[in-house]
Amino acid sequence: MQYGSALPITAFADVGAVKAYAETLEAAGFDFTSTSGHVMAQPPGTNPQRPDRQYAGPFYDPFVTFSYLAAVTQRLRFITGILILPAWPTVLVAKQAAELALFSSGRFALGVGVSWNAAEYQALGQNIHDRGRRIEEQIEVLRLLWSQPYVTFDGRYHKLDKVGINRGSLPRIPLWFGSESGETAVRRVAKLADGWMSLGDPTPDLPRLRQYMQEAGRDPAALMVRAPLVAGDGGAVAWVAAGKRLQAAGVTHLNITAPLDLAPAQALPRIVEARRVLVEALG
User: Looking at the whole model, is its pTM more than 0.70?
Assistant: First the structure.
């Protein structure tokens, strides 16, 4: 089992606190941390159907933040959770991800998704309505750019004529998909992803996902699965019970969080304690 915990989704006012947070996670034995890939913020209350934390910001830039944290840590791995890939130019993501993987000695994984925020897509000059079709072609292009010095590609959204990163051998960059469990999303994960970050409990959907992977000619056992585990007020007994249930279902990565009403200074000790308890129980 791999254990991680995300940076708070809304950026700390004190940049030094980001370093301290990551260093605490590494010292406590965590395997990975993550952060969202939102670019733009909106005023609180703009989207009343969504919690403000999902769009009000300010947010970290994952490539800049993880580049910095890679320089001040030794072992901690980093994953975008998620980068809204269809809102970004694919070749720019390919370049930045490759550089981050290189300078972090392979400690970077790219987690992607499609998001719901039309205003953010518009601000970035992209069409939200074709985001599902676009992300599938983007994944193909990313893998080509990471594996070949120069790429020629003629697709619906990408025209590449003998261009590339030309970096030679790069560390492998796993591609995770963060999504809900709708039919289209699960089939996309089965077809394309190295790992799945479920927005909720993944266990009801894992049998279906594994079936779709088999139908796509892929080995279900190769898929990494990250699930959230809230270190709530139930304490160690509740945390271990939740962890054992997820482990039995085939979850490979636990993303430990604290209840939302706890401030980061209060949440971090709870998260660290939950990891300690879970490692003793689950390995």
Answer: yes
